[in-house]
Amino acid sequence: MAKTSNGLYEVVWPCGERRLRMRPLAKRLDTLNGKTVAQLWDFLFAGDEVFTALEEELREQYPDVKWVSWREFGSTHAVNEKELLASLPQRFKDLGVDAAISSMAC
To answer: Domain UGSC-like spans what residues (predicted)?
Structure first.
């Protein structure tokens, strides 16, 4: 940093120049009733238990929600993770998925 004669310092913003344009968020669903929700899991921690509990609780509030199980997709943290994630938009379209819940271990 260079000091100027009036006691001020020249500084550089540490974040650098933004390279990617921001995109608007997807429109949020008004309800889960009548919607199909995909479950994605990295097969770590207890996603099988978490999704069972989520299904039970959400079905009470949204009795017409449909689920596409995590078993349909396989682990999102596997050796083919890049290919699996790249295939999701088409898989979601083929399966009629309206929303997804992604669960991962911390």
So the answer is: 10-91
